[in-house]
Amino acid sequence: METAEIQRRFLKFFESNGHTVVPSAPLPAFEDPNLLFVPAGMVPFVPYFLGQATPEWNRATSVQKCIRTPDIDEVGKTSRHGTFFQMNGNFSFGDYFKEQAIRFAWDLTTGSLESGGLGLDGDRIWATVYLDDDEAIDIWHKQIGLPLDRIVRRGQADNMWSMGIPGPCGPCSELYYDRGPDYGPEGGPEVDEDRYLEFWNLVFMQNIRGGGPAKEGYEVTGDLPKKNIDTGMGMERMAALLQGVDNMYETDQVRPIIDKASELTGKRYGVSTSHTASESHPDDIRFRVIGDHVRSSLMLIGDGVVPSNEGRGYVLRRLMRRAIRAVRLLGYDKPAMPELLPVAMERMSAAYPELRTDFERISSYAYGEEEAFLKTLKHGTTILDTAVTETKAEGGATLSGSKAFELHDTYGFPIDLTLEMAEEQGLSVDQDGFRELMAEQRRRAKADAAARKTGHADLSAYWKLLQEQGPTDWKAYESLATESRVIGILSEGESVAVAKAGQIVEVVLDRTPFYAESGGQHADAGKIVGPNFFGEVVDVQRPVKKLVVHQVRVLEGELVLDDRVEATVDAEWRLGARQAHSGTHVVHAALREVLGPTALQSGSFNRPGYLRLDFSWRAKLSDETRSEIEEVSNKAVRDDLPVAVKYMTLPEAKDFGAVALFGETYDETVRVVEIGGPWSRELCGGTHVSHSAQIGPLVLTGESSVGSGQRRVEAATGMEAYRYLARERDLVSQIAEEIGAQRGDVLERVRAILQRSKDAERELATLQAKAVSGRAAEFAAAAQQVEGVKVAAIRAPEGTKGGDVRNLATQIRGHLPEGEPGVAAVVATAGGKASIVVAVNGAAKARNVSAQALVKAALSGKGGGNDEIAQGGGVPADQAQHLLDAVVRAITA
Ligand code: ATP
Ligand code: MG
């Protein structure tokens, strides 16, 4: 049975049992600051389970895309761990409980194929339950008929579910399928988790847990008022069972990638005959890593993640690099992504059609990343080789942790690669030292994240407010001032009743005109004024959906809970914000008009007077392209296009051609902002001008690279654009005045001045050379007698250049008496270094005085030339006199 069919049957089964089908949330966990990615089907429903929000339904079902980074090291080595997988779930919010949940799972898994079930053999199913959950045992045994010897009691670590922190928890029951003696020893899941494959976990959320260790050893402190059900069936594991293959990498969604890799590398997949993944040949594991990681990369980029050196982007980068490296270890060293990624897309697009329509963008990131990594590999390999040679030269047998870290951090060289390559050259690696440095870096990253304003990990105070007071009545689209009531004051995450002058607190109002930072638009600025209070709004965020939180600096008086206040947005600020945000849409549309539709925005930021926009594009924009984008943008302003706002459903918006951006989660009804009809259509919640002419001038002020395959344009808008141009004009005026030219002639004059300055420098150099050589006779006359040789050993004037030193030496030699042995040695210093030229005449040469030998004597063996003239240098300038002395000594000897 194909994976797509399992998905269809699962959703149909639960839909016909009263569950609402909820689409998968995107892989990045946008709503939860504690998570990078969604690791389980229940994550999008967490606020409902915690009672922080009320769902519209009490039964739901979903197929959720998941990423589990902690499982990365298991990939290919067990039969059942993918970094990406799909979790099919059914959820009950205070509706049905244990009995019904077990019944549903059993009926669907063992139900016949004709009746819409999955047709597994019930006699091979085992169930685990929590130690004292006799209720579950009874249901399994008495109602389902599972024999007691296939029901296993397990402890807290395995069969008590919680989120690792105080909150809801509950016993769970896991379903295992016995794949038979070929897969391992008998004895149930406790003996062998490969033979007995876990495919479904049923969580009975009924208790409350206290603090303590995350997984095991915490206390269960009470019962939940409403009991919930959360289940997760691994779609890939079910597919492996139903397709009769050994592991999840051989199922219909992944295996074709492996086959393609096998074709490319000419290596066979399936070298070992054992069914057990852990006994596999290393090549087989590499193939599975490729299959898994290529698919995960596709899904991640599909959901808007782009390769980078931190956070989500780093996870993606790591997956891609591991896959690419595995391909190379299998013996293929050309770019592999262009061969493998399309295979993954073909398999996955049946369930996720956007992967096909968006493939040009997705693949451009993937291919770009591979190209970059192949370069890194080349470069990093040289660095590693040098480090290995150095270590060996010093007699060491261990590559230092800091070198391994540097390779990792600076060159993106994965540690396993360093380990392997060092080992090939007979060295081990100080892994402890490496890990220590990594941990330190991670601590730093964590501290950074905590310092970010949205990194406030504990959202419970906000959820509580939302629940008690309801959503903020949000008037940002209609007005700049509201009469409001203070319904919450928070100081460092805690509710307080009063805020006093000097404090910065978070203020929640029942109604507000303030725009909270989102969609790239900076928060509004303004003030809140009460009967005995004056405060400045310094930031506005929406930490949980529908709740606007103002960060307020109390300037005068005190703010008391329940106060009536006036909340006023700074009108000038807002006008600037509207100009900048509409300007961002205009620049985006202009980019796509000039560069084509793949120049898709991947991030943006705007505040009054300024905007920046990141987009996928590989090459630097030429000056002409920049000008063209600027011109198209300003024409759109001149044409005074109408700006319209429309509300529709997400599918309608997509049909309508609206550009949806990543990093945003969209509600069922979305807001589309149009500029000039179809010219620019984007899903956007921002505040905008009503006609494009109100944006005012738009000036591109910068274009730069922000990571692989990503460029950034920056622009000034409105008055700021005017000021930018005015500053440039003033600059030209000042230059013109300075050089005494008309404005129109400035460029020509500057060029002429530069030319004159160059000519003058050249002339000066010639004069200096002449002056130096003019003294050649003088230098020759001052030569001293050394062992019957006339030696002119002199210091050239500071700054004499290489060629001139040589000329000087030969000229001095020319002035030494002919027929008498003579040597000219000239030392020059420049740039902190000293160099020497030695010239020897015929008579000296006849007495076996060699220029080359003299230079070598002075420079301990270095230097080059012949018997008549030789030179060398590179020693510190303070050695200059020593060089001359050494030459004289050498002649004496
Ligand atoms: P395991 O112990 O095998 O790692 P788990 O206990 O971590 O599994 P759960 O957290 O209970 O799994 O997740 C529910 C279901 O999701 C599992 O029963 C399994 O079918 C599936 N699943 C979990 N992790 C993965 C993974 N890395 N790859 C594929 N499927 C998975
Ligand atoms: Mg697990």
TrEMBL record:
One Gene Ontology term of the molecular function aspect: aminoacyl-tRNA deacylase activity
Protein name (record): Alanine--tRNA ligase
Job of this protein: Catalyzes the attachment of alanine to tRNA(Ala) in a two-step reaction: alanine is first activated by ATP to form Ala-AMP and then transferred to the acceptor end of tRNA(Ala). Also edits incorrectly charged Ser-tRNA(Ala) and Gly-tRNA(Ala) via its editing domain.
Binding residues for Zn(2+): H581, H585, C684, H688
UniProt cross-references to PROSITE patterns, sorted A to Z: AA_TRNA_LIGASE_II_ALA
Cofactor: how bound: Binds 1 zinc ion per subunit.
Domain Alanyl-transfer RNA synthetases family profile: 1-727
Subcellular location: Cytoplasm
